[in-house]
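Figure-free illustration: sequence to structure, shown twice.
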Amino acid sequence: MLFKIVVVLVLLFIIASLFSALYFLAKDKDGGARTAKALTLRIGLSIALFVFLLLGYYFGLIGPGQR
């Protein structure tokens, strides 16, 4: 159960980072440093989530048909 909660929280952080990048893209007139940082954070979180899911499957914490 804890594994699922962590996955959902990370997904929420990924979505929040995506919307913050959209906000910075719309509001910042100079460059896009904050937009790039927000998108970099989103990519990092996505990769970390993917690795976390792979490790969870490898160690048997998640699997096909499990609830």
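We now fold a second protein in the same way, so the two outputs can be compared directly.
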Amino acid sequence: MADLRDSVFLRACRREATPYPPVWFMRQAGRALPEYRRVRQGNTMLEACRQPELIMEITLQPVRRYGVDAAILFSDIVVPLQAVGVDVEITPGIGPVIAEPFRRAADLDRLPALSPSDVPYVSEAVRALTVELGPVPLIGFAGAPFTLASYLIEGGPSRTHEHTKALMYGDPATWHALLGRLAVIAAGYLQVQIDAGVSAVQVFDSWAGALSAADYLQSVEPHSAALLASVSGVPKIHFGVGTGELLTLMGQAGADVVGVDWRVPLDEAARRVGPGRAVQGNLDPALCFAPWPVLADRVRDTVRRGRGAEGHIFNLGHGVLPETDPDVLRRIVELVHSETAPH
């Protein structure tokens, strides 16, 4: 098995000098790729996430197509929830849908701890992928406690998170018990991936931007910090959407790298995150539809601003949009790789 420690991606995670920013894309394995759509035919999202051969193929597709500096395991943040018995399906065009939302203390009984035997397909796929990828690092991931809780409480995606906030404000004991249990499940899921050989992990807190800094600090950060503290041996990335006002707190939660969406300039985001952390991001995914000269200028600007951080991994500020032209992503990778650090 290849020694990955000198890969440009892992060096950036450790805030070491790199000749250029490593680049990968959130949702790089997905609907933007015609080869992904072909192999997914006849399988629901969660069915595909339980088949090691499909996990492998879909994980490898963007590495072949784009030449990115890291692969990310094909999975979904609700996979461990389904694995422990939650009735969840991913509905096309909607997202995760929970048959029976979690709104009372008694609902916690439906959330047992995750055992490695609950997700054997993940271990099998990761072990095979680390061999197949050779010098390319593999990123594992899990959902953050708040984002998982939001799906469970709302019953699916929500713009307002009214049920989530009602529980957070109205029943703090149940709220903290739920997030504590979800942190344990997410930690178990990350540990399965680490034990099987991933080189880094990312915690997705996709809905954390719905919170004020005060609510995040009191009701969410302790559980995210507990999750991140439970992970050792590999670099940890912590990412949220709409979290410009939370970046300082996210930087204090314990990750090695803080992911940044496109709403805050990357140099300012690095200042907010604070010392001792690298940053990841932060090109607006919609810019991939702009004329190439405009897009190229914004890519270069992102790279330039990232040089002020202690380490920078180039990425989008959120996932690849489904209608993105794959050739545009390939050209972005080539451009970032050509933006060598000044001597």
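Summary for the second example: The longest helix spans residues 172-196.
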